[in-house]
Design brief:
7 strands; about 170 residues; single chain; about 35% strand; SnoaL-like domain-containing protein; about 25% helix; globular
Length: about 170
Amino acid sequence: MMRPSKADEQKIGEEIAKELEALMFRSMEAINAHQFNPDLDPWTGYAEGFHMNLSTGVRGRVSSKADMLKEFATLTARYKDFKISISNISVNVYTKHDKAELYLNSASTGGPGVPLGMERSSVSVFFFERTQVDDKWWLMREVTLTGMSMARLGRRYGLEVLRFSPRHLSTM
């Protein structure tokens, strides 16, 4: 069997990157629409053992796809106006190793400590692997760094401001 040329390999990588980007946009649309059926797209692209380093703050640790879907279902039931928007995506595909990394800049609003009209920015890395059995790309894990958090400015004025509050990257 001949190996693909560099140009073919690059084209394959670009096609895979487009698919993974599309999955991420569909994931955010599903969260915003409060659609968490694990048997429907986009969740069928997530590995059963999917895990993430941060909780949304409403339930706790996420160590499976089911946990993640429950986490977001609880969050969006409690905070009906919660929304996530994507500002930037970058994908690195390692075709020889059947792995990919998707870097995502996003902002959320309407959630815990972030009322509508204010946003909490974050940077996430999503790790994908392709299985040899079904030749499918699976989202395996997410690592997120939140860049902003809410802080009470003063009870006298009832104001809230955003302040920088970095979190440490956890390795899974």
